[in-house]
């Protein structure tokens, strides 16, 4: 039986619904004129202008520092958390609590963190955003590594012990390499989530050193310019690449 | 040769309600090929894991060379385990997998390379040193797992169902290979299996386990000829088992008659089970019990005939050499010498 072609129509429309706004954004970023909503010729002038903008450059640097730091922290903590959970507890509840920050509404996490920082009189700045991002980053890494762990044969670690490796050496030589694809995928995910995170960063930022999403927000308040479209397009490209790589790695994970 | 290497004394292990091991005591001698045989779930793997150090008994003791083994962590025991799943490291090639245990001993690089090459030659995998485990066949993986364990030259090598993942033809080959290898390297082997033929053909001595208890420890021939109890008689090889009451001249079975067997004076008047091997049962025209041929199976060298005897709920089996003259539905008589049968208590 031949499949009727019209069944592709709803799927096509859904794709259109998902990606039309993004397509508009990308096209507009190459606008030659300074009209953010009407295309008037093609050019990359706005990209040049973007790189010349000091606030944007500083925002980018802050974002990269926060993302790199949060990723490093989340990767280490998330991996240890996943291994610890798998090894030392059978509690489903602990498991769920561990990955909850990944699915909690951002606004809840944001308010909670701000309340906490205020309660302990923590000064706000890049470091407070970094720690805040590490909170949900850790949960994401833990969730990804946990999935990977479920696919790893537990007898590998026993075989390593059996062949004379100490527990520490076994962790370094057998456990970590088996988990590597999951750990890398988790790290990429944490990084790409951190670079465009707004709500939590907005709540936990200090007076100086705003991250890029906050910079964009303050620019948008005076109206959308093609410069912002260009910036968003770049961010899009970066996150998209990261998500694709992360997905590749987790698929690799399943095939082993 | 007869020096005990391992002494297991009164070892018990429970998992909640399940008694995986109950008061298991046995000795494994230096240099022997020892088999732990029993149906699935009888505690074989648990015992092996206790020897390797991944499981601890609730009570009892285990010594190796007269030193307490239970106090030693797994990575310092002179014992290696070949896992049922082989547990080859997927991110290392064959040579790296085999060298892993030697590297952990911090041996000189040259010696490691030499020993790895030697063991690769022994198991016939020299050409595959650079392959990853997922590029190997089941039989090749099994060899690598074996090589990885014997290259450490352990005092004791434990093998958990080493051949169960292989197909029948490769399994027969590997049985011979295992035996040759054990002879060659002179390491004491303990192999776990649920396949009684495998245990009988491989091992010098076999311990039969059932529900966490040792039923009998013996060499294959006595195990077959003089089973200690009903479980062993039924589990090892084919057997005809008939229950009845012991009389002065044989086993009295209501509705069948008196079956010939040696009668110990003390057993008279008790309920017991008679066991007689199919190859000891004769088919003929005179004496014994009357029956009807129900099934004839030709195995090439031998033929197995199943005979329905009135009054018995299971057909009696007889194994005869070559092809046989009887056919399905024929009337025949079944007989055996009293000395070929044995009586077992019903407990
Ligand atoms: N870690 C464990 N937790 C709970 N029950 C177990 C565990 N290991 C083994 N058992 C139980 O103990 C019994 C013996 O298991 P095992 O030693 O694996 O048997 P075998 O290897 O002879 O098939 C089985 O009933 C099994 O379910
Ligand atoms: Mg088992």
TrEMBL record, chain A:
Localization per Swiss-Prot or TrEMBL: Cell membrane
InterPro entries given in the database record: Bact_Polyamine_Transport (IPR051789), MetI-like (IPR000515), MetI-like_sf (IPR035906)
Alphabetical keyword list: Cell membrane, Membrane, Transmembrane, Transmembrane helix, Transport
Membrane spanning stretches: 7-30, 64-86, 93-117, 129-149, 170-195, 228-246
Pfam family, one: BPD_transp_1
Matching CDD domains: TM_PBP2
Family: Belongs to the binding-protein-dependent transport system permease family. CysTW subfamily.
Protein name: ABC transporter permease
Organism expressing this protein natively: Planosporangium thailandense
Automatic annotation (TrEMBL), chain B:
UniProt keyword terms in alphabetical order: ATP-binding, Nucleotide-binding, Transport
Annotated Gene3D superfamilies: 2.40.50.100, P-loop containing nucleotide triphosphate hydrolases
Molecular function as annotated in GO: ATP binding
One Pfam family, short name: ABC_tran
Domain ABC transporter intervals: 6-236
Transmembrane segment boundaries: none
SUPFAM superfamilies for this protein: MOP-like, P-loop containing nucleoside triphosphate hydrolases
Record-linked InterPro entries: AAA+_ATPase, ABC_SmlMolc_Importer, ABC_transporter-like_ATP-bd, ABC_transporter-like_CS, Mo/tungstate-bd_C_term_dom, P-loop_NTPase, Transp-assoc_OB_typ2
Protein name: ABC transporter ATP-binding protein
